[in-house]
Design a protein that fits this description.
89 residues, mainly alpha, 2 domains, 5 helices
C-alpha cells in the first residue's frame, strides 16, 4: 500500500466534500412554516420571518422545539425569542 497515495485521495475527498456541502446544507436548512402556525409567524417583522424561514434558527434550536415555541408563546414573547436567536453570533 502506498501511504502518500491514500493520504492524497483522502485530502482530495475532503476538499470535494468541503466545496459541495455548503450549498446542500443551506438547501436542507430552509424551513417551511406549518399552516397551523402561520398566524403566529405573521406577528413577526420581515427580518425575523426571513431568519426563521431560511432555517438559520435551526442552528440554535431544534425544529420541534421551535414549533412548540410558536404554538405556545404570545406575540411579544415570540418576537423576543426570535430577536434573541438572531443576536447569537
Amino acid at each position: 500500500m502506498n501511504t502518500p497515495d491514500i493520504s492524497m485521495r483522502c485530502a482530495l475527498a475532503t476538499l470535494v466534500l468541503a466545496l459541495l456541502l455548503p450549498p446542500f446544507e443551506r438547501a436542507l436548512a430552509e424551513w417551511s412554516v406549518p399552516d397551523e402556525l402561520q398566524t403566529q409567524v405573521n406577528t413577526l417583522n420581515n427580518e425575523q420571518i426571513e431568519f426563521i424561514t431560511s432555517g438559520a434558527m435551526l442552528k440554535f434550536i431544534p425544529e420541534r422545539q421551535f414549533e412548540h415555541e410558536l404554538a405556545t408563546r404570545d406575540a411579544d414573547s415570540l418576537r423576543t425569542l426570535v430577536n434573541d436567536l438572531m443576536a447569537v453570533p
